[in-house]
Amino acid sequence: MVGEWKRLVSNPYCRLELETTLHFLDKYLPGKGLVLDAGGGPGRYAIELARRKHKVILLDISSASLEFARRQTNRAGFEGEIETTKGSVEDLSQFAANRFDSVLCLGPLSHIMTKRERSRAIRELVRVTKRRGILCVSVIGRLGAIVSHLEHLNEHIAYPFFKKFRDVGDYFGQYRFTATHTFLPEELRMTFKNQKDLRVLETVGLEGLSSGQEEKVNELAKNRKLWKAWLDTHYKTCTNPSVVGMSEHMMIICRKL
């Protein structure tokens, strides 16, 4: 959990995922309210939401992550705004229907390995969202992940697992990384579009045009003028469907009807 806590702020490239997510949360979440951070791990987003005057319930399946999140919450001075509870995204039965003004699931859906279990998790996320409330879900993009292999792990392209990963999106944890289902943009959109009482508002490529360009992005960020201009380009283009599709991480934003 320490690794994920640090990853999102480790360099300008990684911060793009964090800052772009927060940009769109600021755009769509109500000014205040009760937010479920489902599978929120070490609490990075929960603390950012508390800074924005939201009340947050952070749910995670890992006791170690919850303990880490509690320490970070206390250190940031938000122990009164953030509650932690143990549980799975696939079973939110500890919460009543229509409980939360907004629900976030930033990452965990990509680590649920069967379509049936992912569907169950999505139904639960929708169930606990209030009518007219906002649901935000981010996942790992398949095309961006393939490009990342070319950039960082090109020896894996010839490994037996790679063809299934390329064609279906499933990676079962054979090398380095945890088991993951990666999404094509149309798969993500249709998964949520087909949910009853849910309207898709927007999809976002969180790294956008910067995907796969970590070294170049980190170098560019050293020049304040160039970085500001690039961020402007990033936010102008990150909702373009082609850009969403190539991004390493993408987020879908929905409203419950």
Topology:
Layout: H1 2-7, H2 12-28, E1 34-38, H3 44-51, E2 55-60, H4 63-76, E3 82-86, E4 100-106, H5 115-128, E5 129-140, H6 142-152, H7 161-168, E6 170-171, E7 180-181, H8 185-193, E8 198-205, H9 214-220, H10 224-237, H11 241-246, E9 249-256
Parallel strand pairs: 1-2, 1-4, 2-3, 4-5
Antiparallel strand pairs: 5-9, 6-7, 8-9
Describe the structure in your own words.
The chain has 257 residues and is of the alpha/beta class. It has a single domain (2-256), classed as Rossmann fold, CATH 3.40.50. Helix content is 44%, strand content 21%. It has a 7-stranded mixed sheet, sandwiched between helices. The protein is globular and about 45 Å long. It starts with a helix and ends with a strand. The model has no long low-confidence stretch (mean pLDDT 95).
What is the helix content? 40-55%
Corresponding CATH architecture: 3-Layer(aba) Sandwich
Q: Ends: how far apart?
A: 35 Å
**Mean model confidence by pLDDT:** 95
Residue fraction in strands = 15-25%
For this structure, the CATH topology is Rossmann fold
Based on Cα principal axes, name the global outline.
globular
Counting DSSP E segments of at least 2 residues, the number of strands comes to 9
Count of discrete alpha- or pi-helical segments spanning 4 or more residues: 11
**Order of strands in the sheet with most strands:** 3-2-1-4-5-9-8
Determine the CATH superfamily. Vaccinia Virus protein VP39
Element order, helices and strands? Answer: HHEHEHEEHEHHEEHEHHHE
Low-confidence stretches: none
CATH class wording: Alpha Beta
By helix and strand content, what is the structural category? Answer: alpha/beta
Largest β sheet strand count, sense and barrel closure = 7 strands, mixed
Rg, rounded, reads 18 Å
Number of domains: 1
